[in-house]
Each structure stands twice: as structure tokens, then as C-alpha cells.
């Protein structure tokens, strides 16, 4: 595959990006990452992991200490004007023009990027974000959730091909969160590449095509979400006992089996991908030892469990 065909498949290409601030704090350490055109990519990481720094470098807001970033094949430092028009950024903080109306603020954002006036597009964006009824309201009168919608509208005003959402649903209600997820999926269907950073792991689980995990400035994993869930996901069988037990009977102390809930529940962890899960063998042994149970059900590892174990295990 030649370089040009590689570039057409990547919306963003990051090579060896590092950032060390004046005080000596190293926010990013040699990050390599390709983000595919038209995907939803979720960047997960604890506070201070480097998520916002990485997004700020891609958007041209922060200058890296080393490495390079290209957006649609254009270098973000050399071709700043070109790359900036391709990117929409929804920042974490709710900084908006308090005294402006929603309509005026969003239309102004479009003009900032040198785009010709297009009221039909602004109307479409406001309707998609349930802001149309509020178009003449001053931003200062809106709720926090509505202000966040205005930030998204402003980021979409100039019709970017790449949208960055930095913690888009921090502090908003569940209903608004689901509205946003729906809107983001709709954007992807129109070909927009969406990169989101989030604390809410269910957000990544619900929406992302691929997941990257960053901690202490290092990208420790990039994986298709479904593959990640299959590869690292374990299943657990929870067996509620009729009569609590003090300890596991001899012969039952197999690996993967533990006693929980003050002896009232047996938890058996197994690999869901394995042909022989060992469940049948376990249930047979319980019957042989006269251990009665009143309920059993399986639990799957969530993306959150995987994330916590990855971050804990990072060097």
C-alpha cells in the first residue's frame, strides 16, 4: 500500500507526539495513533492522563515538544489554517458568549472559519440538537445542558469533517447524554469522524468503534471495542447458596472459584471463549457434595472492569 492511499484512509495520523511543559511535567510520551475516517474513536483515561493535551495538539491549540500530526494529510503546524477548518472542537469548559443569542453565536462561529453564510445549515444543526426553540434566547438564560448543546452547535457550524468532543457529557443529565449519543451516531452516518474523550465508560461502550486507553501520558492500548470486550472480557457465574458455608469444601477449591457475600454466594470466573468453561463439572461437584443452591446467573465483565485493570497494571 502506498503512502497516499494510507493517508486517504486516515482522518488523523499521529507520530511520536510528546509534550513536556516548562516545569518539566511530561504530559505525553511518544504517542502514535491513526484515527480512521468516519469512525467513532473513544479515548479513555483517568484525570491528568494526557487526553486533553493530545486533543489540543491535534487541534493546533498546544504546540508539541516532538513528533508530528497530520489531519487529512495536512501537517497541523505547517498548514494550520487548512487543518483548523476541517476540525470542530467541543471543549470541556462551558465558555460561551453569555449575552449573545443562540442563533447569533452559532452563525458567528461559522463566519470565524471563513465559511459563507448558510442559514439553512445553522437551522439544521440547531434542530438536530433540540435548540431551535431556543434560537432567540440569550445563552446566559440557558441551563448547563443547553449551553453544552450550543457548544456542539458552534463546533458544527462550519461543517467540519472531524469532530472532537472533550468530555462532552460531563455534568449533564442522562436524557441529554442519550440525545448526544444519538446525534454523534447521526454525524458518523454522514461521514464525520468523531473523537471523544470520556470519563463515562458506558459512553465508550455504547458508541465507540475503537477504544484507546491513555494513562500517565502513554497510549497503552488501541483496540476495536468488540475485540477488546471479547479478548479481555471474562464471565462470572454467580451461585446463590441455600445455606451459607464457612469455607469451600475440599475438592471445590479450584482456581477461579471463590466464596463471597459472607459465604452465601459462590463466584466462578471463566473464559467465555473457551470450549470447556468448566461449569458442568462445577455443578456436578456441588451436587456430589450435597451443596444446594437457589439461584445462579452469569455476569459479563464491563468495559469499566477492563479499563480499571489496564490502568492499574500500567507501569
Automatic annotation (TrEMBL):
Coiled-coil blocks: none
An annotated Gene Ontology molecular function: ATP hydrolysis activity
InterPro entries, per the entry: AAA+_ATPase, ABC_transporter-like_ATP-bd, ABC_transporter-like_CS, ABC_transporter_ATP-binding, P-loop_NTPase
Signal peptide: none
SMART domains linked: AAA
Residues in ABC transporter domain copies: 12-241
The keyword Transport is annotated on this UniProt entry: yes
Keywords noted in UniProt: ATP-binding, Nucleotide-binding, Transport
Residues spanning the membrane: none
Annotated Pfam families: ABC_tran (PF00005)
Protein name in UniProt: Multidrug ABC transporter ATP-binding protein
Amino acid at each position: 500500500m502506498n503512502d497516499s492511499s494510507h493517508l486517504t484512509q486516515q482522518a488523523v495520523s499521529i507520530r511520536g507526539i510528546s509534550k513536556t511543559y516548562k516545569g518539566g511535567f511530561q504530559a505525553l510520551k511518544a504517542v502514535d495513533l491513526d484515527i480512521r475516517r468516519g469512525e467513532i474513536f473513544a479515548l479513555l483515561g483517568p484525570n491528568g492522563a494526557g487526553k486533553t493535551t493530545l486533543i489540543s495538539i491535534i487541534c493546533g491549540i498546544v504546540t508539541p515538544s516532538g513528533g508530528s500530526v497530520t489531519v487529512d494529510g495536512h501537517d497541523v503546524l505547517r498548514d494550520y489554517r487548512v487543518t483548523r477548518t476541517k476540525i470542530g472542537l467541543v471543549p470541556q469548559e462551558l465558555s460561551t458568549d453569555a449575552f449573545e443569542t443562540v442563533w447569533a453565536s452559532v452563525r458567528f462561529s461559522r463566519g470565524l472559519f471563513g465559511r459563507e453564510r448558510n442559514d439553512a445549515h445553522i437551522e439544521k444543526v440547531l434542530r438536530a440538537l433540540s435548540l431551535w426553540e431556543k434560537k432567540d434566547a440569550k445563552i446566559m438564560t440557558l441551563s448547563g445542558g443547553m449551553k453544552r448543546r450550543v457548544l456542539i452547535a458552534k463546533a458544527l457550524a462550519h461543517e467540519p469533517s472531524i469532530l472532537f468532543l472533550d468530555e462532552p457529557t460531563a455534568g449533564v443529565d442522562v436524557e441529554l447524554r442519550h440525545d448526544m449519543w444519538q446525534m454523534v451516531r447521526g454525524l458518523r452516518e454522514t461521514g464525520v469522524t468523531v473523537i471523544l474523550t470520556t470519563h463515562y465508560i458506558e459512553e465508550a461502550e455504547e458508541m465507540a468503534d475503537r477504544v484507546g486507553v491513555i494513562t500517565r501520558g502513554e497510549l497503552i492500548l488501541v483496540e476495536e471495542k468488540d475485540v477488546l470486550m471479547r479478548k479481555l472480557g471474562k464471565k462470572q457465574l454467580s451461585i446463590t447458596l441455600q445455606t451459607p458455608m464457612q469455607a469451600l469444601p475440599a475438592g471445590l477449591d479450584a482456581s477461579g472459584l471463590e466464596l463471597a457475600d459472607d459465604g452465601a454466594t459462590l463466584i466462578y470466573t471463566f473464559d467465555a471463549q473457551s470450549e470447556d468453561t468448566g461449569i458442568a463439572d462445577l455443578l456436578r461437584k456441588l451436587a456430589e457434595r450435597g451443596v444446594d443452591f437457589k439461584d445462579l446467573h452469569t455476569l459479563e465483565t464491563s468495559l469499566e472492569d477492563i479499563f480499571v485493570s489496564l490502568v492499574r497494571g500500567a507501569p
